[in-house]
Design a protein that fits this description.
Elements (H helix, E strand, L loop, with lengths): L20 H17 L3 H17 L3 H7 L4 H13 L4 H24 L2 H10 L4 H30 L9 H7 L1 H24 L18 H22 L5
Helix pairs in contact: 1-5, 1-10, 2-5, 4-5, 6-7, 7-9
């Protein structure tokens, strides 16, 4: 679950962190769409390189590289399924690069955007407050669940539970002493949040205010223009030059 580190907000003072979440989300969606559109290794490498620049500007390259260890299992599954079902080693590389591009397209966004800013952006877009709150809480739960998983994992290992020995079935069976306490703790936390929301009369007023209104700046307009240029370039590569 170490790949979840790439979706945990880090408070830093960078040019990426200061951007409006709406412009960052637009660029993230565009990068994700382009990653899905193309299977050309050159296009995927260019996308990953651009995302590395964004992560460098956000001073979050360390968190991103550490999260790649959690994707090793998925890389192995991709290569095994490709070799077993008529694929090639090259297609395995392409699909692995696509997975990296897809995960990175949202990673830099969540690393540089607070859940509060994301919620405000969704509210400005006119989405229901219930949906906004649910999405924001889901974002908050990702790092919390990871930290609790790591804590239970270390506790069980200190008690002598051998989690890394045996075959695949044995390892899955050994995870049960971790997953059950994790599930119970998650359910208990949801009840606590529900009680806190009820005490604070969540949803009693249809109109909500914010102490920090969102406002697009010059950097945000540059990001929006770059997103539009990326869309036009992707369509040109696909329709005019026939790049797959």
């Amino acid at each position: 679950m170490s790949f979840l580190r790439a979706f945990k907000y880090r408070r830093k003072d960078t040019v990426v962190h200061r951007l409006d979440p709406r412009s960052k989300f637009l660029l993230s969606v565009v990068l994700m769409m382009v990653s899905i559109m193309f299977a050309d290794i050159r296009v995927l490498l260019v996308l990953i390189s651009g995302q590395l620049i964004l992560l460098f500007l956000a001073k979050s390259l360390g968190e991103w590289f550490s999260s790649l260890r959690g994707l090793v299992f998925f890389f192995a599954v991709i290569f095994i399924t490709q070799l077993l079902f008529g694929g090639t080693f090259y297609t395995g590389i392409v699909l692995s690069l696509r997975l990296v591009a897809l995960s990175s397209s949202m990673s830099w966004f969540f690393l540089s955007s607070t859940p509060e800013d994301i919620g405000r952006a969704m509210s400005v877009a006119g989405l229901p407050i219930e949906l906004t709150f649910s999405f924001t809480m889901a974002i908050r739960f990702i790092p919390v669940i990871y930290d609790e998983f790591q804590s239970i994992y270390d506790t069980q290992r200190s008690r002598g539970l051998e989690l890394e020995k045996g075959g695949f079935r044995d390892r899955i069976r050994n995870l049960m002493p971790i997953l059950i306490p994790l599930l119970v703790g998650t359910i208990r936390r949801t009840y606590e949040i529900a009680d806190a929301m009820e005490v604070r009369a969540f949803g009693a007023s249809p109109k909500r205010t914010t102490y920090k209104p969102l406002k697009l700046k010059s950097g945000d307009y540059i990001v929006c223009i770059a997103s539009a240029i990326l869309v036009v370039s992707a369509l040109a590569l696909k329709m005019v030059y026939g790049v797959e």
